[in-house]
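Ticket #4471: structure export looks truncated?
Reporter: QA, pipeline team
Priority: medium

Steps to reproduce: submit the single chain below to the structure queue and open the exported record.
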Amino acid sequence: MPVIISKSERVCRPISLDLLRNRLGSLMGSYGARNSDVSLVLLDDKEMAEYNEQYRHRASSTNVLSFPVELPLEVGMGGDGVEDLGDILISVETAAWEAVDMSISLHDRLTQLIIHGFLHLMGFDHERSEEEAQIMWDKEQQIFHDIKNVRRESMIQLAINVDHVATVRQARGVSEPDPVVAAGICELAGASGIVVHLREDRRHIQDRDVRVLRETVKTKLNLEMAMSDEIIDIALDIKPDMITLVPEKREELTTEGGLNVVDQKNKVRKTIAKMFKAGIPVSLFVDPEEKQIKMAAELGATFVELHTGRYCDALTGKERDEEFELIERAAELAFESGLRVYAGHGLDYRNVGRIAALETIEELSIGHSVISRAVYVGLDQAVREMLDQVTLHSLGQ
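Actual output as written to the record:
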């Protein structure tokens, strides 16, 4: 099912063409148009106004136009479709302000318009009668719901932070429980990576832990760290699979908020350069804010990890929805900016589902909730239960 997407040079907004291509392809496949072609053209308002004037004799822009090449012989689920369904034209400018007005992400609004345009190609027309308009509206809502709930073809990855195993150990100043042993159990249970934070005050993870983990972790070792010279030197020496730069205050219980990349851009740039010279990819732990994402991309980071703390700590459903939308938009912006996207902080068995369903996020970093659950059911079972939740929501099962 070839999907051809072209984007006008005058469209400057960051857009994930792969994401839109996958959604349109999924729509075509589920609608029985597997052997058909569709062309999606993304324009600005001025270009769309020209098409609207030429073909509809209306001197203004609009959000979407459809130009069917040939109507299918059979409209409905299971039909074979035709070789070439036609073209869908969308004004990204109009879609963007509509998305703001509707409090949804730009990609979701573009998806809604793609569905609307596709149904026109399949023979639906809301302008013929109120009855047909209602039928088309209901079908659009159902299709959008289906697309949003079957999000990805591959499962999001789960990395486990074992800092709190070391916290218990350090409370007594003894050798157990050992975060190195815990990391091995997590990997055997299905974790795709191990995360540890070597703090300047060494409140939990110790230098020995990081060095032994570097030798024993079979998946991926992600070293969280502040930009202090001492910790930078340790990272350059042991060479973890990746590092994540985080803010760090001695008086805080845990990391509070994301790294202010904008205000510390010179220091971040120098640290990234040192790590890249040593072959160590860098992730930046940031709040889901546009300015932080854009600066992370500008400075050459490989990853961003979106701080999910405000979403997890929200006291009302409205507040939680607002924070989720910020994360969703930030993830899409980062993805289109060429960054690989992780997320974490405060995620637990109850709230992880919506974040796991975001197709632009490839890995979640979770620690406290899993280690807490392990007190009751054991570490192996706790990791497997979290993996079940992640799988359930990321694959839309």
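Status: closed, not a bug. The export was complete when the record was re-opened. Leaving a note from the reviewer for reference: Residues 282 and 302 are 6 Å apart (CA to CA).
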